[in-house]
Amino acid sequence: MSVFLKLAILCILGCYSLPFQAQANNALLLFGGTDHTAFLGCLNCANTSTVSVCNEFGKYGSEYQSDSIWNQYGKFGSEYSGESPWNKYTNNAPIIVDKNGNSYGYFSVNEYHKNRTRIGWLIAILNYYDKTNDIDKTRKFMCGE
């Protein structure tokens, strides 16, 4: 599947999941940890943003940073960590909020999490990981690489 087609699908899914205004104006921020105070990056900021989870050279998008969701050996990227979105059984996944503190649910591959996000394009990414169990492919899928 081409990158263009993936992005088109994610855009279509995302446009029907939140009101257009919410998507256009609100950065979707990810917070993790047992008390959800660890900032893990922005899910929908430009890939070049220093806070984007898709900036592979930034603190939140690097597969080597300890607190990155893309570090498969870190507590927020390991499929075995209870604080990782990639753990199929966790109830303590990172939460998605905007700058005003409005919650958009939890970024969790656990489809049974009681407050899992309902944002279509994010669910598509979580389901992609669940299908492939490959964090590198999931990052490329999400970030359009």
Detail the topology: elements first, then pairings.
Layout: H1 3-15, H2 20-25, E1 29-32, E2 38-42, E3 95-97, E4 103-106, H3 120-132, H4 135-143
Antiparallel strand pairs: 1-2, 1-3, 3-4
Helix pairs in contact: 1-3, 3-4
Task: Describe the fold and architecture.
With 145 residues, the chain is α+β, with helices and mostly antiparallel strands. It has one domain (3-143). The chain contains 4 helices and 4 strands; from the N terminus they run ααββββαα. It has helices at residues 3-15, 20-25, 120-132, 135-143; strands at residues 29-32, 38-42, 95-97, 103-106. Helix 1 packs across helix 3 (120-132). The model is unreliable at 1-24 (pLDDT under 50).
Features:
disordered N terminus, alpha+beta, 28% helix, globular, four-stranded antiparallel sheet, 145 residues
Summarize the structure.
The chain is α+β, with helices and mostly antiparallel strands and 145 residues long. The chain is built from four helices and four strands. It has one domain (3-143).
